[in-house]
Known about the structure:
Strands 3-4-2-1-5-6-7-8 form an eight-stranded mixed beta sheet, with helices on both faces. Helices cover 39% and strands 21% of the residues. It has 13 helices and 14 strands. By secondary structure, it is α/β, with parallel strands linked by helices. It folds into two domains: 2-183, Rossmann fold; 190-347, Rossmann fold, CATH 3.40.50. The chain has helices at 18-27, 63-81, 93-114, 137-141, 143-153, 164-173, 190-194, 202-206, 227-240, 255-264, 281-286, 301-309, 339-347, and strands spanning 2-6, 31-37, 42-47, 53-58, 85-88, 123-128, 158-161, 181-183, 213-220, 244-251, 271-274, 289-292, 313-316, 331-334. The N and C termini lie far apart (49 Å). This is Glycosyl transferase family 1 domain-containing protein. Pfam families: Glyco_trans_1_4.
Amino acid sequence: xxxxxxxxxxxxxxxxxxxxxxxxxxxxxxxxxxxxxxxxxxxxxxxxxxxxxxxxxxxxxxxxxxxxxxxxxxxxxxxxxxxxxxxxxxxxxxxxxxxxxxxxxxxxxxxxxxxxxxxxxxxxxxxxxxxxxxxxxxxxxxxxxxxxxxxxxxxxxxxxxxxxxxxxxxxxxxxxxxxxxxxxxxxxxxxxxxxxxxxxxxxxxxxxxxxxxxxxxxxxxxxxxxxxxxxxxxxxxxxxxxxxxxxxxxxxxxxxxxxxxxxxxxxxxxxxxxxxxxxxxxxxxxxxxxxxxxxxxxxxxxxxxxxxxxxxxxxxxxxxxxxxxxxxxxxxxxxxxxxxxxxxxxxxx
Length: 349
């Protein structure tokens, strides 16, 4: 099958990145043509050695021009290579491009009012990575995206989700047919995490003070990850356990604000920040616990990788929690926003 993928993940263009390697794995089954919006273009290049994964950055000085340019390039690729399947990385920006590539404006109106498709040759799959409808988070914090997503997924032949929780939500709340929703978990190199041999504990080496427990958070520092909450939780924790350490690894719009908050609360000896890593295996193996307080997750790659590495997890009831990952000796699940419950779960380790 020849697949056109529209993705927002710029790490695809970084040779050796986790995302690029994941695309190579996908390419073993199907030939991929990947379009990535950016402010500067990059001509088509290959990922891997088998010439089955073609990627290119589509430039534009603003989001609108990127949208138009990706739409035009997508039409060219469909015509040139006979592409018969489109998959979009999200149900917002890229989802709308996918809908337009399949139907066109008139086709959207035809489908909307006559409930029939004018194009059955190309199948459209929209990926839903976040749990948009399982809680009120997106409806209350980004109503435009919430509505745009609902509009786009009505036109999809298939909706791809990463977890059983997401599928259940779509079926129950949006009345999507069970046959139109497929689960495709994010590919994980389980062998890498299970069998990684740790020769030096990176946290004990970098932070040589006496820390009897080290907790790790890793990911995008965005509001949905609920890191303000985590800082407040850990402030209460260190009042009882002053030698415990929390390491926050990642980048994002909240990082500088969080650094300032940690300094303001005089927690800089107990909460430290590190840049994003392309190889989290030694981080999981060096930590005593992975801690994830998210408000919403479509999956939680970090939780699944940590589980593969054998690192105990404390997380909120989102994404894979209570579905792919069940409560047990190495998995503690706390209701979203339950500060007292989270503090208790940490102190009981």
